[in-house]
Amino acid sequence: MPHQEEFSVLFNLFKFLKKKGKQQQEKLKQVEPEPHVNEPQAPGPLSLENVMEEFNGCSDLTRRSLPILKAEIVYFGHLVDKHVFERDCLRPLENIRQDELGTLLRQSQFNEAKDAKSVVNGICKGDAALFVPQGVYMVHAYGPETRSVEQSQTESAIIGPHDAFNESLDTNLSIIRRRIKSNRLKVKQFEVGEILKTKVCVLYIDELANMDFVNRMSERIQNIEYSGLYDNNMLLQTIEDFPSTIFPLYLTSERPDVAVSKLNEGRVLAIMDQSPTVVIGPTSIFEFFTSPDDYYGRWAVGTFLRLLRYVAFLLTLSLTSMYVAVTTYHYEMIPQSLIASLTESRSRVPFPPILEALLMETTIELLREAGARLPAKIGQTIGIVGGIVIGTAAVEAGFTSNILIIAVAMSAIASFVIPSYTMSGTIRVIRFGLIILTGFYGNFGFMFGIALIIIHISKLTSLGAPYTIPAAPIKPVDWKDIFIRGPFWLLSRRPTQSRPPNPQANKMKK
């Protein structure tokens, strides 16, 4: 059979590429890492001259002298809270004499430093260093300007809370603490980046979260060896089980209500300073199709919207590919009443269906990127006007058919229905691969591509938990909050994937 021969060729090619990939990984492992050169040396003895030498070239460093007390204060003015600095450090020092200095330094805001390295690190973190004859003392006055708590721009809320995380770690922790008023909310703090030294916190609720997941995420964060990470979306790529996969293995969100609900389910969160998102794990592929709005409305409406997203997922993944397969190989699948209009529509098109589909899909992606990068008002105009003008002109010029324009437009609209932007981007990339497979092998290529996707996601894990649960392994107890949004009295147990010590979520009766 010709299809069997094609399948054999594709299967052998897949095995060959997989073998080559393993060989390349083994070669990379055998290469010895080059020794680090020009590594920063530790500061010398604790003195003002050595500390100032470490900040040589830092013109934004502030140094204030108090001649009466023979004291020097060193700090970054843009990192300290001016009111806290005035209240806890500067004003008390200006109102005392030399013989009263020892009594003042015993107050709680003054912490004696032991070495020059801790002084340098403290100044970089927003502390003020006080150099006096009695020693060196650090005053915590960190308080840079931060963005206020606003509404999320990427996860719009129709009903429910409208606040969102911002780039301040302290603000984000306070938002969560205001919602979870319990001492069972635990926070582990780490520091990542050899140069940036960014704070990362791991959050979980004691006796609800599985400590295997907590320890696994903590260990992976501690083992990060990068010069610096700038956002949580970079962090999650360094702690994934399968870094080479195209599918997102952690859920990210800017909404505090999502973060709190996942903590209550027994999940583990990671929050990074200077990042407005949180990383949630473990997660399954089905959670990328859920929205917080599902729980704020009636359960029947939430179920309908959730099922609608799965339909949109199937449409955006297969609609353009099926057009290519049908118009290239399988005309018998076209309804007889539609054959005449389809033939007439394609009679002027000089390209084969695969090239026609790739051209229009690429055009849609260009319009999407242009609309996203331009200011909001201009971006909307570009998207609407560009789509109408280009679509109409392409049909009139004979570059494409009317039916493909409809298929591509429906596929693009369906991709916007998916709540997660990262999953939506993944599906857009997969769609191009399916178009190419169907262009060469028809329905067989489409089914082969779907089979590869299913095989791939079946082996994925998130923090060691199955990525496809509750479909594989089958856990029917979780289906009432995955494929549908059941009423609250039915959602009595926490998700199986998080393996919580206390699976009972609530005791509400019907």
Automatic annotation (TrEMBL):
Keyword Membrane tagged? yes
Membrane-spanning parts: 307-326, 378-397, 403-422, 434-457
Q: Please tell me whether the keyword Lipid metabolism is annotated for this protein.
A: no
Q: One GO term of the cellular component aspect?
A: membrane
InterPro entries assigned: Spore_Ger, UPF0353/GerABKA_families
Q: Where is the composition biased (Basic and acidic residues)?
A: 25-37
Q: Where is this region: Disordered?
A: 25-46
Key words, A-Z: Membrane, Transmembrane, Transmembrane helix
Gene Ontology biological process terms in this record: spore germination
Which family is it part of?
A: Belongs to the GerABKA family.
Enumerate the PANTHER family for this protein: LEUCINE ZIPPER PROTEIN 4, SPORE GERMINATION PROTEIN
Protein name in the entry:
Spore germination protein
